[in-house]
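Revision sheet: structure tokens.
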Amino acid sequence: MKKLLILSGKGGTGKTTTASAFIEFSKATAFADCDVDAPNLHLISKISSDAQFSDFYGSQKAIIDNDKCTKCGLCKSNCQFGAIEYDNSQYKINEFACEGCGTCEYNCPSKAITMVDDVAGKLALYKDDKVFSTATLKMGRGNSGLLVTDVKSALYNNTDENDELAIIDGSPGIGCPVIASITGVNMVLIITEPSLSGMSDMKRILKTIQIFNIKACVCINKCDICTEISDQIESFCKENDIFLAGKIPYDESVSKAINNGDSIAKYNCPAKDALQNIYNKIITILEKE
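Predicted:
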């Protein structure tokens, strides 16, 4: 199975729009959304099956048994994260500040504090004739890289070895979830836009991908909103031997498709034609891998 990851370096450049179009073009039966902080591919993918949900456990969190607590305050005074509050004559754990270090449990003379596994997110697996894996990280929780790894594992463990292509919608940025999504894929397609921030973020994600020695290519979305920077991106790709898979013109049909919860691949418009052309090039390269 060839694994194509779609990244952007930043949010809002058309990553999910591209992923959903590629799923439609390829009739892919295996795909995943690794943007666990803000997943939205499920809104467009039109999966008909019910999801199988499972809990994702991150770091541990402290809990206080107030029947055992003697109100000595050692937990609060020793917590370097300020995660313990005193309110209404009781000590309480702020779950968003607790880092799960266990210092409070260690210092509690009355054994009133225990560390428990914390449900930091929820995995969702949709499986019928297609397999779609996604997840949502709870607000304020870390371990997003581990959750992305679980999303990918759920996808691969539930797909047929004969499936030709898996399409993975990645996270914005260059942090842990992005690094976790890059591992093990055959190619990364970077969606960028002709703006200073778009070009800067493209360069940052390219440097990240180079560490993994994985083939990367670029496409420029809304290429005509600033032809000057679009030309600069094209020159940068040429100078650095990075394959420019194509350019997508600004197209109001994209907004209509998003608002309707549809893939742009279902609309006859210039953006769809450009994406189809880019997809054809990407698949040709992947088939030679």
